[in-house]
Amino acid sequence: MVKAWITAAAGGLLVASGACAPVMGGGSDGGRGGGSSQDGGGGGGADAALGVGADAAAGGGPGDAAPGGGGDAAAAYCGDGTCQSTESCSSCPTDCGGCTPFCGDGSCNPGETCASCPADCGACAPACGDGACNGVEDCSSCPGDCGGCAPSCGDGTCNAAETCTTCPGDCGACPAVCGDGTCNGAEDCYACAGDCGVCPCVADSFEPNNGSPAATSIADAVTYCMRSICGTADVDWYEFTVSSGFTATITFTDALGDLDFEAYSAATVAWIDGSYGSTDMETITQTGLASGTFWVRVYGYSGATNPSYCITVNTY
User: Which of 7, 165, 191, 211 has a CA positioned 20 to 30 A from the CA of residue 149?
Assistant: First the structure.
């Protein structure tokens, strides 16, 4: 090889080219694109031909690394695959992963309900059993929330303060009784004048028996009913025989007319006893009598009338 001094075309530098340093080739410091240069690739070594500065790579600045090579580290950013200390599951779920659901995260997650997390799922619709007596609930439709209703007529239960009279709807109709103000099927003017009105006084079938001579003979221990006393002129006489005594009784409704009762001896035509009470019964009892015939008479006190009474005589 012939030594020659060549004036470098670039930069006016003198570059020695000898037998061991071929031009456009790769020397100890590397030519363009090759060699075992210690100062960089692509553009040649310290004495590289067609370079622009010691150690400069082709296309590079003085002393700087080649593009894509060493130098300062890149800045961290969301999406770089690493969850940095400044990142979180909410600010960068791509790097840090999604956040664990919790009440208050603005999403009604599985496992959350209007009861357990109203902040995310909204308030629950009112329902019986939720512990609150809402506007559409009351003591009858939802006693669990609103409490039991106060007893009242019409609630289907006959409560302590209710009766068949005050609340028949709950307690049932009252049984028919004389004095309830209603003349029921089993009542009539004889049995219950208070409900059915006073019966007209009609002469009974034993008339005329207004004196002892016309006294009606009655049997022992037989009860005769539907007898009547109609006015001051009506006096009923009855006749019977005894061995040693008797008990005679009349029953009636005193409110329809007070009756009195007397006994006489037919043998002497004398009064022997009387009953003058003001109840619904008059009774005369006599013992130690001589056998014979006796009379009893029924009449109205102070001219009272009574449309119905019964009479019984037991002799002995």
Answer: 165
